[in-house]
Design goal:
By secondary structure, the protein is mainly α. It has two domains: 2-44; 48-119, Winged helix-like DNA-binding domain superfamily/Winged helix DNA-binding domain (Arc Repressor Mutant, subunit A, Orthogonal Bundle), CATH 1.10.10. It has six helices and no strands. It has helices at 2-11, 18-44, 61-67, 72-83, 88-95, 99-119.
């Protein structure tokens, strides 16, 4: 709200009538909110690649290495679901995906991980 008020005092054109100022304020408010939202996600996001050394308590290091063999989307979902204990709905919000899509990726990732762990090596389709 302070940013919008500051913009009104410093950047609002003087030649606008009352209705135009109202529209200008609405547009500036929307833009400031979008900017704030973008900044929040940029500050809070971290790549799973930055945390390769992380592993779940009591888990064998080999499992985490095998998880890292998965494609990025599936790897992130597996990590968030099993290691960070997020629900499918929460993961959908974090990754800005549909919950059904997250569930599908999770099932695919489980299948690939099972094949990697039982047969050894990398996943083959």
């Amino acid at each position: 709200m302070q940013d919008v008020a500051l913009a009104l005092l410093t950047k609002c054109p003087d030649d606008l009538d009352e209705i135009a100022v109202k529209h200008w304020l609405i547009r500036v408010t929307i833009n400031k909110c979008r900017s704030f939202h973008r900044q929040f996600w940029q500050r809070k996001r971290e790549s799973i690649d930055d945390h390769l050394e992380l592993e779940a308590p009591g888990e064998d290091r080999g499992v985490m290495e095998e998880v890292m063999e998965l494609p990025k989307k599936e790897r992130n979902i597996i990590y968030l679901f099993y290691y960070e204990q997020y629900s499918i709905k929460e993961i959908a919000e974090i990754l800005r995906m549909n919950a059904n899509t997250v569930s599908s990726h999770l099932q695919r990732a489980r299948k690939k991980l099972k094949q990697i762990l039982t047969e050894g090596g990398t996943y083959h389709e």
